[in-house]
């Protein structure tokens, strides 16, 4: 019986490896249907070297906003060649005092590398333990998939970082926007956050929420 189980496991492993090697890549076709695993594949005859290159990270993002920050993503389908490869990258610009509020990436873990400035970064585990670190130029930090995390420019000038993800489409949900930037009834927000009516309405007003 153990031998049968071993053979079945080996065959399953070989089968999965063979399946993964059926094609070299799956360049995203934005005109085709999208599934949880990514975009449909572009016709290989129409794929060029341009599909595997992306120049959008060279320019700084616009940080003239409420969070004084900008994220420039290189995700599929804009960066078509990474579709299905399990990787992606983004540029993070933080003006003085800029912040990426508490947020999660449900589809991937994240690695951040500081290029310029000083960034205070951290995440909160499912046991509500806080892992906090001040990062200088050349430092990096990893944020496990699905956990709440943030980045704050704690220096005296602008900060720049690049972040890499273990998915071509990591997803994003910003906690404060989820609570205060939509039409979730204020009484429900108050009941689930223990904030006062005045506090909830103030935050909804700042972030554009209603109801």
TrEMBL record:
<keyword id="KW-0464">Manganese</keyword>
<feature type="disulfide bond">
    <location>
        <begin position="26"/>
        <end position="41"/>
    </location>
</feature>
<feature type="binding site">
    <location>
        <position position="110"/>
    </location>
    <ligand>
        <name>oxalate</name>
    </ligand>
</feature>
<dbReference type="InterPro" id="IPR006045">
    <property type="entry name" value="Cupin_1"/>
</dbReference>
<feature type="binding site">
    <location>
        <position position="105"/>
    </location>
    <ligand>
        <name>oxalate</name>
    </ligand>
</feature>
<feature type="binding site">
    <location>
        <position position="105"/>
    </location>
    <ligand>
        <name>Mn(2+)</name>
    </ligand>
</feature>
<dbReference type="GO" id="GO:0048046">
    <property type="term" value="C:apoplast"/>
</dbReference>
<feature type="binding site">
    <location>
        <position position="103"/>
    </location>
    <ligand>
        <name>Mn(2+)</name>
    </ligand>
</feature>
<dbReference type="InterPro" id="IPR001929">
    <property type="entry name" value="Germin"/>
</dbReference>
<dbReference type="GO" id="GO:0031012">
    <property type="term" value="C:extracellular matrix"/>
</dbReference>
<keyword id="KW-0732">Signal</keyword>
<feature type="signal peptide">
    <location>
        <begin position="1"/>
        <end position="20"/>
    </location>
</feature>
<keyword id="KW-0325">Glycoprotein</keyword>
<dbReference type="Pfam" id="PF00190">
    <property type="entry name" value="Cupin_1"/>
</dbReference>
<protein>
    <recommendedName>
        <fullName>Germin-like protein</fullName>
    </recommendedName>
</protein>
<keyword id="KW-1015">Disulfide bond</keyword>
<dbReference type="InterPro" id="IPR014710">
    <property type="entry name" value="RmlC-like_jellyroll"/>
</dbReference>
<dbReference type="GO" id="GO:0030145">
    <property type="term" value="F:manganese ion binding"/>
</dbReference>
<feature type="binding site">
    <location>
        <position position="110"/>
    </location>
    <ligand>
        <name>Mn(2+)</name>
    </ligand>
</feature>
<dbReference type="InterPro" id="IPR019780">
    <property type="entry name" value="Germin_Mn-BS"/>
</dbReference>
<dbReference type="InterPro" id="IPR011051">
    <property type="entry name" value="RmlC_Cupin_sf"/>
</dbReference>
<keyword id="KW-0964">Secreted</keyword>
<keyword id="KW-0479">Metal-binding</keyword>
<feature type="domain" description="Cupin type-1">
    <location>
        <begin position="55"/>
        <end position="201"/>
    </location>
</feature>
<comment type="similarity">
    <text>Belongs to the germin family.</text>
</comment>
<feature type="binding site">
    <location>
        <position position="149"/>
    </location>
    <ligand>
        <name>Mn(2+)</name>
    </ligand>
</feature>
<keyword id="KW-0052">Apoplast</keyword>
